[in-house]
Write a structure and sequence with these properties.
Length: 193
């Protein structure tokens, strides 16, 4: 019998918690080394917290390249607003202890200005199905995005298949520390994005 989403989340969270600080630090540096693969003048991203892949080195590498990086600001209704990343020192704990930029919010629709959207996930499968944390924030926000969406996960979190529900939003690609950016789905015009 296949794992339910709840069972899979428990297993994936336990595997993430078992990673050492050194492994997470190395993963953060490796993600930053792939910054050149991410194109666009504006990229919506996120700050990896707790056992997520650490993304701050990647955010800094993108900003150093002149990319405008948008980060989510979690709202009371669990939807996402956005603000510009102004460096590690300008991040502060927000709702549910997410690290958020302390700058002015740009509105929920700011995600539509991004040329690429990086999203957190516990896992993604080879068809682009994404397993999130279960709060639904990205399922609310992603319909406003017009750019390709890429999940950021550890390499062993790219799975053959995942359980999905009607409201789940798929991703177009995956970014992992060791393999970089891989496109999983074809664009509407044919071919990989």
């Amino acid at each position: 019998m296949p794992e339910t989403k709840a069972e899979l989340r428990l297993r994936l969270r336990a595997a993430r918690a078992a990673r050492s600080d050194a492994e997470r630090t190395a993963a953060g540096a490796a993600l930053a080394a792939h910054a050149a693969e991410l194109t666009g003048t504006t990229i919506a991203a996120f700050v990896g917290i707790r056992s997520e892949p650490p993304t701050v080195p990647l955010l800094e590498a993108l900003a150093a390249r002149g990319v405008r990086v948008l980060l989510p600001v979690l709202l009371d209704d669990l939807d996402l607003d956005w603000a510009v990343f102004a460096g590690r020192a300008a991040l502060a704990p927000g709702l549910r202890q997410m690290l958020e930029p302390d700058g002015a919010p740009l509105g929920r629709d700011a995600i539509a200005t991004a040329d690429l959207v990086l999203v957190p996930a516990l896992a993604v499968d080879v068809a682009g199905r994404r397993l999130g944390q279960g709060g639904g924030s990205y399922d609310r926000a992603l319909p406003r995005a017009t750019a390709p969406v890429v999940a950021v996960v550890f390499s062993d979190e790219v799975l053959a298949t995942l359980p999905v529900e009607r409201h789940d939003r798929s991703v177009d690609g995956v970014l992992t520390p060791d393999r970089g950016l891989r496109w999983l789905r074809e664009s509407p015009g044919g071919g990989r994005r």
